[in-house]
Amino acid sequence: MADSVFELVAKNVLVSLQNITTANGYEIAPLVRRGGTDKDPDVKGVAQDPFTDAQTYTVDIEIQQLKYRQDMPQTYGKRTWHMPFMLICTIMQSQKSAVQTDAICNQIVASVVKALMTDAQRGLYPATSNPLAIDTTLDGDIDMLVKVDGSCEGLLIPFSVQVRHAENDPYSQ
Predict the structure, then answer these.
(1) Is residue 171 part of a domain?
(2) Side-chain half-sphere of 139: how many Cα atoms within 13 Å?
């Protein structure tokens, strides 16, 4: 079964965020998954303390697709949509960690922005040279999830992808 343009975009977002690894030059290596998938308790995003090389915290990024919003006016023969997403980034920090959670939050934001914006058009539509999407944009504020003691325990990062498909066929451009 062929994937719709919407599913191709969602898969591309997942792969882009899964490229956040220390091997690819990032400071963090989070566990990245789509919403609704079970998290394997044996698999965690790992972050090394740069001073001791000890694992002191883990980062989990869940991708939630929110809704579809149709754009007006339409290009003749095409239908254009915004696909809003929310990244729910959670930090689990050990007692031994000397890394401040604000510093971890800053690393997450920088890594996510770099990963998403490296290819704002989300790759190519299969068997064509056409971009899969029109654009990817960060939407609004990035909210911090705050613990009772005031420290950051995670982030909510909203973004959207503008997608276009054939007017009556979301399986083709």
Answers:
(1) no
(2) 15
